[in-house]
Automatic annotation (TrEMBL):
Keywords of the record: Chloroplast, Membrane, Plastid, Transmembrane, Transmembrane helix
Family of this protein: Belongs to the ELIP/psbS family.
Gene Ontology CC: chloroplast; membrane
Record carries keyword Transmembrane helix: yes
Name of the protein: Uncharacterized protein
Membrane disposition: Multi-pass membrane protein
Subcellular location: Membrane; Plastid, Chloroplast
Amino acid sequence: MAATMCLRGIPALSNKAVPIMPSPGSAGSTRRLVVLCQVNHNGSGPFGGLKEAVDKVSKRPITEEDILRNQQENQSEKQSVFGAIPSSGSFFPRPEIERRPETGSRSFGSVFAFDGAAPETINGRLAMLGFVWALCAEKLTGLTVMEQIVRPGTSGLVFFVAAVQLISYASMVPIMNGESTDARSFGPFNARAERWNGRLAMIGFAALIIDEMIRQGPLIH
């Protein structure tokens, strides 16, 4: 005869009865357990609270009041490094409240403007990945950065295109949702550290290519 039991404490099963059905065959055959799983759609599944947990640890919402206060107190927001004063509606520089994805326009032209949220974020992340990747590949293959990309038979160009698309898409998702890199931090991992590391990586990657063009060989043999 069939029996039923209810598994409690497992969010994905939503307290459904689980029948224990006899397997086909003789009456004395071994019974088998048939589990009826139903994933909840109210965020209480196995990974339902993952996003909330990550947000609680790493996210600090940036409000319009925070941005306006920073514009008043931060000297770099009153005047650009070139001496220009930010003005509303200009291509560069713009006031912080206009260029941030939290309060400004999220159009393609605004996000990818010279002072937009996307260019430095994407370029810095690609440079950090590319610099480490290039040095590791040089050690393994003995090829320069340009040879890794353009030499027939190598897959460097394929990986380069894939990395550009993946990093660009992953970086654009939070920006288009109205979240800048400054809204996230976890211990030493914060937007300021990422910007400086990205800038150094961009300089280092460019210097690596120039050095290899002059020396006509890889930096690491």
